[in-house]
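Support reply, case 0932

Customer input (verbatim):
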Amino acid sequence: MEILLVEDNPGDVDLIREMVESSKVRNEIHNVGDGDAALAYLRQQPPYGRAARPDLILLDLNLPKKDGRTVLSEIKQDDQLKDIPVVVLTTSEAESDVLRSYQLHANSYVSKPVDLAKFTAVIRSIEDFWLTVVKLPRRDN
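Our regenerated output:
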């Protein structure tokens, strides 16, 4: 399974990468740190010409350049990308962000806890649901 992590916080990136890579399920996790890079990656634009199409996107809302809301909107309006599940994974607990994310067709919205043990549990829950429970479409590319 290919996972695109769109996250600019290096600590969160390391923690999420470590948890996903230690999983029993074989997964590849790729990280980009801003909204422009996320869209370039998904569209296989330079320098991501050989980027694998992700099966799942973990998207932070508060990103440099293009914010996550804009990225989510562009993904879900693009016929080539809109079927990729997007999990919004962010520190924001604002009801307006939750509502807006679902209006933009996020597949789920998860708030990142600041407590390390809770954060680990959240990532494990996402992994258990999206990588072992849910049936995702097969990708040819």
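We compared this against your earlier run and they match. Two observations from our side: The two ends are 12 Å apart (CA to CA). Residues 116-133 form the longest helix (18 residues). Please reopen the case if you see a mismatch on your end.
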